[in-house]
Amino acid sequence: ETCQRPRWDSRLRLAPDQENYKKNEEVVLSCIDGFQPSFTHIKCSSEVQSISHGKPVYREVWRGRNSTSDWIRIRSNVECIELLQVVPGTLEISSTSIKLNWTCRLPDACQHMRATCRLAVPLSPPCEAEEVKGEEMLHGQEGTLTCPSLQPFTQYSVTISLPPSMILFSWLVRTEETVPDKPEKLWLDPKKGSLSWEPLPSCKGEIIGYQLNITTRSAQDGGFLEIERLRLSSSVTEHPLSQHSPGNSYVVAIQGVTAVGAGAASLWEFQTNSSDTPHPPDTSCRGIQDISPSHGTAVLPLRPIAHPPGATREHQLIVAMAHNGTALEGACLGEPQPFNASQQPTAYVAAVLNLTGPTDFVLGNGTHGQGYHNAALQPGWDYMVLLRHVHRSQQAEKFTCVCYSFSV
């Protein structure tokens, strides 16, 4: 006439909770949040096990109510089943969205599911992120949940629940990094002769460094041009100017760098003047007087370019066919090839020199050396010639050029 408490899943909760139950006494089963028993209602029953001396022998059994409210014999253990499962391998995290596929193992119990994406931790200034608004209703046995329009490198909590308060799935996730915003503030310290900038906050990714491009021109010598490409660590927020002197002008581009790459560049122009009135630098190259159209030559009075201790003394002599500011920077930064008579290049290397002191170099005398051809100059053409020194280190590249311009 009674049944003993069933020895099924230890996570099952029985109501009423007792050791013995009377015949036909209905018991309600439940599990911890996120799990559901395979039967929610059971009752004690009995069935004939055998006949002894003409009389039936009964044994206790448990019956469960199915989805159609019929009572059926329970022939296996009742377990707490995880209602919702996220399909392995379907988690997709980008810098602006989170996406996952879900499956409900007991569709009847998964009606009216709600999904929300929320900021897990409030951001502190200057980082900002709008709270994700609204919630999404999930229907059926399987589907895809997408949280769009999120802030990069920010923690969100993704929750799927059943009303009133059963949590089926909860996940704390950080969106991927992206490139940083451009730096907003950079200034020149005229006394120290150095650039300084405000460090970037790690709003869109961990700042791992800065990239600087510094173009220096001399107001006294328009033929001088220096371009530095620097890679600095995130702890560095100051850099000395190598050619700091009155009258020089500087164009500085600075970018923050995360693991994803460099962000947008901020561009500043500075000029170091003794007076408050800015004077544009002279952008003309040095002139050449000793030119021989009949021989196709020109004599260049070369001087070694100052370079850091330990740097190579090798100088390149680059011949270009155009003369303007853009062509000058392009030739100074470029990778010109040796002269090729079959396809007249816009710029070529005429010679490589190991300069240790002043020397007069005859350009266009037709000599060959180190794979380069000092080709004859063409009458009627305008030329721009660059004496270039390149110094590379692990953290920087420095291109220093002195230009000469003339017509044959």
UniProtKB/TrEMBL annotation:
Pfam short name (any one): fn3
What the entry lists under InterPro entries is as follows: FN3_dom (IPR003961), FN3_sf (IPR036116), Ig-like_fold (IPR013783), R-tyr_protein_phosphatases (IPR051622)
Entry keywords, A to Z: Disulfide bond, Repeat
Chain ranges of the Fibronectin type-III domain: 179-277
Q: Does the record's keyword annotation contain Disulfide bond?
A: yes
Q: What is this protein called?
A: PTPRU phosphatase
Question: Which organism is this entry from?
Answer: Stercorarius parasiticus
Which gene produces this protein? Ptpru_0
